[in-house]
């Protein structure tokens, strides 16, 4: 049922990577659904599986060394994971577009910005060069760039401008879903706000679904409608932005919020999460957070907690969710 | 408390090494004067390329300033001979952003930690004792002494870098974005460690960062840098509650989640999307006016003609802007 309502829905996605003879599971059952006209924030630390999730959606997972163990990604009534590459190509860039952390890496340095976008329009939309050119001018204006940029090479643009060009390229084929993987991490704070504003404006204008991936919980809170927190290859908590900040239930989310410094916490110690993110190979049968969790009990180490739905469409995977304990 | 470091009109000019030799160098730091009180944490914020790191290095005479002077505990560093300076620099240490490149991959942790003391010809027994103390201090087990940097996680490496800096018994540390390569849950551990060490050893820090939340949590005093100049400086609480320079205001309103966290006025992202946003211009031709003029919403003819100087708004709160009236 839910599949019908959401634009994209990921069900029980498990992915493993093999290194030599060893195989380690990096995604351990991701469940996520994104609605149209919604910005869905995915927050997690490095190595938690954010980027692997996004590469699965867009069909760029390197297989091998990666291997999909189980799961489905439903988009537009189809399971993307079972589509042949040829068909996947009609989605990638066309219906599902992607914005990366370092635009410099994904723009071809040898071609002008205009040429790169025109190429996409001609390929995906079957446009003639002339009408594609006009469309690019329109797109550049939309993302707040001067139309002269059409004849610029990537190296002539600043970081913020490159990211805008990247966004223009992403929206050029009128996609339904944009995956933005840390789109502002390489930018300064003042530029970051501008890019966020642009994404939000585009989402409102075109009723897009956006998967906004970031390591910064508060950055996500500025832009997302709904936030999912990912830890070691599994989503531990998902709720609307307001609900999540008002009432975080998973111990990891709560500790994370208390460990981020700001002026209000001045003079008091920051909460810390002891230890570090476990290596994917070391995670046992239980909850991946158990060995760092202040309220973990025996059962946490034995079985993975399943998702429990709370009020206000708030789901949490924790046996002791919402239990009160002393932070620090 | 008395000042530990006094910098007077520090200017650092980088000249290009072209064959023809260019007349105009690039002024990375422009007439910066700051005093850092003993046992305080002085924060320096600004966007990438504004000269934060150059200033930190100039302050330690790692890259001696082109003009201006640094007085460290009543000793003018400029008057020291190179050999004396090397010796003196034990009292000032620096912790870099990227612990991966700060540690020699071919040296064991033990060797990295004791190298400085070997240079000072400290006997082996004393060295060993000190290395053991240091590694305990930063919360890493002795077993790691025989290991090599690649066997450690990013957070652990940064702890080693901090321990190495402390091996010289310094009075002053330059912390150049010490946590920006680390995950949030690890960042909190390192920040707590730095604050504990500061209190235990009565250290003084220059804390360089682009993360305003972190700076406002850590620091007693903050200076905001823009294009090599300090545009505003005040005690943390004052700067957050009354940011005066238009650049400071913009910076603080760009903090993700700033409104809900430290109560600064937040830019309305929705509103911002509607405006065409000006990208910072490349190299300004005119050297005369205020460096922020091209982006400033308040700028007028006066600003384009003459550069403002730092003036005192209230006690300890200085700002460099023509448009702010003093003496309320």
Largest interface: A-B, 44 and 46 residues
What's the β-strand tally of chain B? 13
Helix content percent band of chain A: 25-40%
Specify the number of helices of chain B.
13
Q: Return residue spans of chain B where pLDDT drops below 50 for at least 5 consecutive residues.
A: 273-285
CATH class of chain A: Alpha Beta
> Major beta sheet of chain B, specifics?
8 strands, mixed
Structural class by sheet pairing and helices of chain A: alpha/beta
Radius of gyration of chain A: 21 Å
Q: How many distinct helices of chain A?
A: 12
Distance from N terminus to C terminus of chain A (CA atoms, Å) equals 42 Å
Structural class of chain B: alpha/beta
How would you portray this structure in words?
The complex is a heterodimer of chains A (328) and B (328). With 328 residues, chain A is α/β, with parallel strands linked by helices. In chain A, 33% of the residues lie in helices and 23% in strands. In chain A, helix 6 packs across helix 7. In chain A, 47% of the residues are buried. The model of chain A has no long low-confidence stretch (mean pLDDT 85). Chain B is α/β, with parallel strands linked by helices. In chain B, the strands form two sheets. Chain B has an eight-stranded mixed sheet with strand order 7-8-9-4-10-11-13-12, with helices on both faces. In chain B, strands 1, 2, 3, 5 and 6 form a five-stranded antiparallel sheet that branches. About 4% of the residues of chain B have low confidence. Classes of the chains: A alpha/beta (328), B alpha/beta (328). Chains A and B meet through helix 8, helix 9 and helix 11 of A and helix 7, helix 8, helix 9, helix 10 and helix 12 of B.
List the helices and strands and how they pair.
The complex is a heterodimer of chains A (328) and B (328).
Chain A: H1 2-5, E1 8-19, E2 22-34, E3 38-43, H2 50-58, E4 66-75, E5 78-79, H3 85-91, E6 96-99, H4 103-106, H5 113-125, H6 129-142, H7 159-171, E7 177-181, H8 189-206, E8 209-214, H9 217-223, E9 226-231, E10 234-240, H10 241-246, H11 251-259, H12 298-302, E11 308-310, E12 314-316
Parallel strand pairs in A: 3-8, 3-9, 6-7, 7-8
Antiparallel strand pairs in A: 1-2, 1-4, 4-5, 9-10, 10-12, 11-12
Chain B: E1 3-14, E2 26-32, E3 35-37, E4 41-45, H1 52-59, E5 67-72, E6 75-76, H2 82-88, E7 92-95, H3 99-102, H4 109-119, H5 124-137, H6 154-166, E8 172-176, H7 184-201, E9 204-209, H8 212-218, E10 221-226, E11 229-235, H9 236-241, H10 246-253, H11 258-261, H12 269-274, H13 301-305, E12 311-314, E13 317-319
Parallel strand pairs in B: 4-9, 4-10, 7-8, 8-9
Antiparallel strand pairs in B: 1-2, 1-3, 1-5, 5-6, 10-11, 11-13, 12-13
